[in-house]
User: Fold these one by one.
Assistant:
Number 1:
Amino acid sequence: MEKPSTLLVHFDKGSAAMASQIKADLEGSDVAAKVDGMKRAVMLLLNGETLPQLFITVVRYVLPSEDHTVQKLLLLYLEIIDKRDAAGCVLPEMILICQNLRNNLQHPNEYIRGVTLRFLCRLSEPEVLEPLVPSILENLEHRHHFIRRHALSAISSIYRLPHGDQLIPDAPELVERALASEQDASARRNAFLMLCACAQERAVAYLISNVDRVAEWPDLLQMAAVDLIRKVCRSPNRGDKGRYIKIIISLLSSPSTAVVYECAGALVSLSSAPTAVRASANTYCELLSSQSDNNVKLIILDRLNELRTSHWDVMVDVVMDVLRALTSPNLDVKRKVLDLVLDLLTPRNVEEVVLYLKKEVVKTQAGELEKGGEYRQMLVQAIHACAVEYSEVAGSVVHLLMDFLGDTNVAAAVDVVLFVREIIETNPKLRVSMIQRLIDTFYQIRASRVCSCALWILGEYSLSLSEVESAISTIKQCLGDLPFYTASEEGEATDSAKPAQPVVNSVTVSSRRPVVLADGTYATQSAATEAVSTASVVPGSLSSTLNLRSLILSGDFFLAAVIACTLTKLVLRLEEVQPSKVETNKACTGALLIMTSILQLGQSSYLPQLIDNDSYDRVVLCVRLLCNTGDDVRKIWLQSCRQSFAKMLAEKQFQETEEMKAKSQVSHAQPDDLIDFYHLKSRRGMSQLELEDEVQDDLKAATGGFTKDADDTNRLNRILQLTGFSDPVYAEAYVTVHHYDIVLDVTVINRTKETLQNLCLELATMGDLKLVDRPQNYTLAPESSKQIRANIKVSSTETGVIFGNIVYETSNVMERSVIVLNDIHIDIMDYISPATCADVTFRNMWAEFEWENKVHCFLVHCSH
């Protein structure tokens, strides 16, 4: 059976002759050789080797040594070796060790005394410790704080042993007396912790008697005081809780950030009063802005998020303080800040929040920020969420964001154009200015997907004569001169040398690639590339404005089909708003010329790939439609598309509203709840905080806030029976799954009239489960029970099985009895939490993490 260890050292096992070499080194007079020999002996013992013949050598040649390193290694050696025989009695050789330890406790050197006292903290044999107690107590009054500090730790460890109160019956009184006169911070902390663990009333009395001086205590002692207050106030019916809350609030001004953090957490756990919660939230915000470590910032943001779930009204007031954490260069911190702020939006603070986010967007244009493109995308998504929820702020941000339609970060540009598409539908008042701004900035767009969405917006929302004409003119300018190639260029392109290929700087992908849908399945789509494309250099044209031409010449025929559809819509709209038939026919002819040029380019050998069938059919449909237009078709093209988009937005808004209703079903206040007017309550000299806390406690008691019936019911549902009711030992387990840790709380009940000795719960796992620790042997009295805990680590998403048995001995039967346990099946669904993911985020993660399983197939062609 594995034994508990207080020491862990890595060591590769050596040869069998190492033991004799160690003995020779210890018997020599060379101090360096003794140090090396003791180190190897300690490491061998830690790795399971038994060196019984070495003990006498250590007593004879190592005990008398005055070298500090040797004495330190000697104590480690004594800590590891077995001090009891097979019958459980202390070995007689330990008497020799007792005399040496007593000498060390009276040694003139402070270091020897200190390390010996620290060693005694790890001893659990009363027979060894009893003769040393007087020497330990003498060290409480030593002049050096190093020795007093470890003497207090040794007294605390001895007193907490099973029969420690018999070894030092007056330990709490001695420690309390030492604490009153002690000046060293660590020694005072050790004494205070001993009183907290063994004599809590004395620790509370010391704390109350020093209430006015707690703020001046060293940070180590303040942390111990906070822990004591947590334990004392755990009971819901303590009438003096307000006194302890005052101590916590006074410690919020401590110079130690660790103390301040602990006090903020303790304050929320002790009181639900708005004043206390507000003080805790302000403290967290100050730590968030003052700490530079990103891990600390993430932890503080988690605490603030917990406050948001339970005290949303208070957190709304500190939303601007939380936003200041966006100055951190870490993207994870920025993402958490934005997520938290979006959950705290109200009509009162949304304008302030959006204004701050606009300033951050402007900062990203300078190019000084690391990963500025990703940060800009996060800001755009946050502003989008603000504008969708509060439409009145859309007008102040949409024009600024439209400047980023040509962003080099394609994801950010896509977010901007999707934002523009939604705002132009939901805010009709902004339509005119947004269309004009889109026309002015269209030539800056370089991404195919952004161009496609922008063209759809122009085709749907260009309503007036000037808007339609400007949109057609802009598309023509971005396409450049027609045709896209000449016959001589096509002939040169088919040549083997191909010296006159157009210079296309865009990164292209085949337009016939499979696309990943939202559910993870694949579909065939003739989609354009989403990479950043720079304009092609075409002779006789300005490359900076010919973004559509460069994308088409890179083989993006999906975008070409979108251009054809947009021109068709614009021409159909022009027929309605243009009184002159001549101008209408002229625009229609120009659109047909562009479409036929696209078809000619797609079927030529000028480009490496031909136009795909979907895009070809789409362009041909547009050509036929412009040549022969009916009223039904006109209605579909000019009205139905926009109506479908509006319906999609309405369904999206409806789903979000339903989700919000579902979340708000568990209300904090019922219509028939008692309203407590605490202004009419008897104050009895209480402060405002104490009064608020008492009111909150009364409300919790009245509404069942202190009961946990739901949790108890949930626990009963997760209890698994491991043995039968007729077995001598009944066992059941409660399984707790937390992320990748599984904890088994096993209750074992002795149903016999006999004492069960060496009872052991032996567990094994199947699958990618790993048992962290093996439970020890226990002695179980008749009809008594024992709680045994086992920890298991999960290393994959496969289903695992935990199986095992209970082994025990009785006085009547010499052989060991075995009871086989029922298997425990750990399913993947037990440690997977449901979550939502946007389509765009899902596609990005799918591409980034490569979740597809690629299988290589080798086919053998058989000839018949």
Number 2:
Amino acid sequence: MDFVELEAIEGLRWSWNAWPTTKNEVSSLVIPLSIMCTPLMQSTELPILPYDPQICTHCAAVLNPYARVDYLSRIWDCPFCYNRNHFPISYSGIGETNLPAELFPTYNAVEYKIDKVDSKFGSNLHLGYGWSNGFSSSNVSLSSMSVGTPRNIGGAGGEVRGFVGPFPAFVFVVDACMVEEELRAVKNELLLVVEQLPENALIGLITFDAMVRVYDLGFSDCSRVVVFHGGREVSSEQTQQFLGICSTKWGQQQLGKTPVIQKLGFLLPVSECEFNFTTAIEEICSLAVVMPGHRPQRCTGAATSVAVGLLEGCSVNTGARIMIFTSGPATLGPGIVVDSDLSDAIRTHGDLINGHAPNYTKSCSFYNQLSQRLSDASVVLDLFACSLDQVGAAELKGPVESSGGFMMLGELFESDQFRKCLRQIFSRDEDGHLKMYFDATIEVVTTKDVRICGALGPCVSLRKKNIIVSDRETGEGGTYKWKLGTLTNRTCIAFFFEVCDEQRAEPGSAFLVQFITRYRHGNMGVRKRVMTAARRWAENKSPEITAGFDQETAASVMARLAIYRAERSFARDVVRWMDDSLICFASKFGDYIQEDPSSFRLSSNFSLYPQFMYYLRRSQFIDVFNCTPDETAFFRLMLNREGVVGSLIMIQPTLFQYSFDGPPVPVLLDVRSISADVILLFDSYFNVVIHYGSKIAQWRKLGYHKDPNHENLRKLLEAPELDAQQVVMERVPAPKLIKCDQHSSQARFLLAKLNPSVTQNSTFIDGSEIILTDDLSLQDFMDHLQALSVKV
């Protein structure tokens, strides 16, 4: 079974592709029943349907290929609840040879484009006709279904050309305490970004140091700002009162209807304020007066709260982003990270563990309250932080992650990394729309034998319950529906399930899971992506269960669970839980003679899982030694939204060897792979290392690659650099590219991740590189695992 091919069709990866029928059997599997869902996975075969989906009147499931259809009576039976539903009159031509795309057996995933005409034209008619207007299997091709532009509708009131609706909003929050060169780099990039924005996009500008300044972009005579004291926590109502905003109730706004945007100078369309915005940006200068022995007075938390209050007051609850650009920690007001006095060191992991970080708990509580406001207002929080010290990303992680926002930690705003990240976020698709998706919800529908436990990823539980919601919660649980401020084509969420054995399912019968993702496209039109998948129930100890185990997905799921536990308990307790789970797993699925470790064997579809757990135990996600709290927060945030392939690279990095013997080949992530006459390309997702063996490095320093007689050496040196550049270009945020020679100090980035099979304690070295460490090697780890697994 090729799980990657299945993912390309369904957009889903299952830890177990066949499920037991009882809770006891499920608990014995050790790895939970889970699905890694990429809601907006790119696919060339995805049909875009310009009409409303047919929804079951009982369970709200969407019509899909597993439904039974009575063509004569125009009735379909819901495969989830078996309710009988009538097709509307627009489906009058349906038949076995004339099927709508959502009933094609090969279309497990379809997308509905349900944009609506602006209310000023007198109705809420759909821009696309119904299915009966020609979108059927007998008279239209898939390419004609995937219409990129809505149809024009003529009428007495005039002609509607395309979708007229809500506009995205962007509030740029700039740290005025940056040094002049860094501030100039940020200003230049913001001016380029605004030039590329659609003319109807709303923009606002806020700067902060010890004060928060909100710019009135509608006032042309001079720069006019409203100033807030950075040391005080200002509520949403107070912010709106000071800004002169009369907010409307969000509850009156509905997805698919145009909100009423008030005429305010603090948030205006680009077409109306581009000149004033450019002038305001150019006039920003470093305002901080830093006392000797002190850090700049910086009120990041207050500025963020004011930005949220501005968007709440303007009722832009259909898609907005707050983008923070900062170069240091908050030293004032709510969300404070460290006092301004340099004698007070910024918190470390040791301080957090020992309770010596007096501001951390209070600041996290402040930002967690902000997370709920962001979710309610459909606002995304992005953090761009460039500094050689910590900036408070650990405190800000909550609202950034829950809103689906972007986080970048770098050293300089003048770097290519920052420019690439910002431009990637504001890139456009082939139709010229921003490649941003706002205001999303994900709803899960299952058959009656399956219960939903929760989700782990950049989402927030909406606490909506029904009979398929389990009382046992995992992560964001207690619901069948989740909110996402934004998502991308790569955003991946792990969903957890359990079996309801009140009425035991029949082994061999099928069960279904459906994911319904509703979101706003880059053109602010409403889309609905529906993914439906079926699997079979299996008897306990059935070969179907073992054959359906996806060890890569299992490792990704366990990594998310480990992070979830690590943020709520001590690291040693997490490692103990991981070890206990692995021992139970090996004991359950290994073939062995009791009390005989040498007889232990794991079949091929289980054999890599212990290796993944070994590298996860040593990873920066669990072992935070030599990492700051900010770095740990960033690493965990990235893992918690990445798909299976990206997660595995983070857990167990890839290593390729380049030599004169032939094309590059993958090699073991082991210190024995280092050799004097080869080049290694190492990819840990966050770092890409090109490691030159000592002989290769010496030849390069002597300039042999410039000699035409040594063309092979030139090609050998070029090959890993080209591959590394390709990796850096494709990944956002871009990984750090490191080039190092064997035995150099930079080689530590590679050595720290390699399996220490040869250490200072090894008796037989055979000229191999040595890692000075007391860590267990993979072989020692496996020996211990085998010894513990075969015990009675």
